[in-house]
Amino acid sequence: MIRALALTASLGICPCHAQEEAREPLPDFATCMDMEAARYERALKRLREMPDAPEFEIGDERGTGYCGSVGIVLCDRLEVPEQVQDCQLALAAEQLALAAKVRDTLPDPEAVQTGGAFEQALYPQVYALAEGISAGPDCDGAEAAFQAWCTAWEANNRLSTAVLARQLARFMGLAEPATEAGWADSPPPVRPRARADES
């Protein structure tokens, strides 16, 4: 939950005061994940261009967590409590469905023969986390608003571990780009920002 609160704060928006803030345009969750997949591919390309063989230093769950936070903030902007809760539960379902797609593309650890000693030791552990079962119903017993929020974040945690395992498999050359695997689309082009009026 601390990670969830930190990521929400990183957007510069407090859910309880979202209606009072200038509403920065945000991508929907699916588009955000497309952007995250593309960001990883750029980072991987730069890493592979380095003269020395690098270790797996670009694996990161923060991008996936940010997309989950964006999704929750977009739900908060609906403002009507029932609509917010329905939106967050739908977001949770969307994240779990995506996590299942990502897990389906993960190679079996027993088939991993590439990569350095560090990556070969790390992959089975990350794979096990991605395939793991929740420790329990962490969100049960809470009032409806918090339960919906919690459910969305628990789904994001499941997705984050699956994406991290996929990042490592991609780094080791065991997986194709997300767009070729079918769980992400090419993100929309970034539009240049208009210059501030200096007159």
UniProtKB/TrEMBL annotation:
Organism: Ponticoccus litoralis
Region of interest: Disordered: 178-199
Protein name as catalogued: DUF1311 domain-containing protein
